[in-house]
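Tutorial, part two.
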Amino acid sequence: MDQFLQVSSLSRAYRSGDVETQALDAVSFEVAAGEFVALMGPSGCGKSTLLNILGFLDPPDAGSYRLRGEEVATLSDARLTRLRRGHVGFVFQNFNLIDELNVAENVEVALLYRSGDARRRRIDAVLEQVGLAHRARHRPRQLSGGQQQRVAIARALAPEPDLILADEPTGNLDTANGAAVMELLKGSAAAGTTVIMVTHSALHAAATDRTIRMLDGRIVGETRL
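Running the prediction step on this input gives:
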């Protein structure tokens, strides 16, 4: 597989008053196009900070992040916004759906730059893909937790991104719904989308291509399955 992204010596620190916390400390790794990678480690080890940097939500203090060979640090804010909007899909533990919008409208939020007809076709396609076409007019509060997470995945898939970043996507789900979400993410990777997932579940990590283990802001191990 072709190399998709490369991070080298990434570091990020946060300061609160006189206390500085080193969230990332010289993190380096590569991810191939279409690879499904799990990030594991205890809470506070830097996994979510790393995900935010990979999604252009947070800049590193030092180091290099290259996406398809292009150094992200040199890109303008406008270019980063376009990349984030059209090429990166986010999936969160708490779904982050908009209660006032129905299922189709929540997916549509990721497609506002597309024309009306193309937008509608894409909404229909991704809701069919996640098995929720029959729930298109329901509000999030009318859905189960597993269904809400599938809506969130549909929203992430809608722009046909190159990269999906998933932060504990199964953390609030029961076993059956967690397995269904994992199948959707695995299917996305099989179709060529690169997926990087933060998880505490050894079972779900074992379903990915590779697990990167973190501790205290550093990479301390790696398992390729």
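The longest strand covers residues 3-16. In part three we will examine how such features are distributed along the chain.
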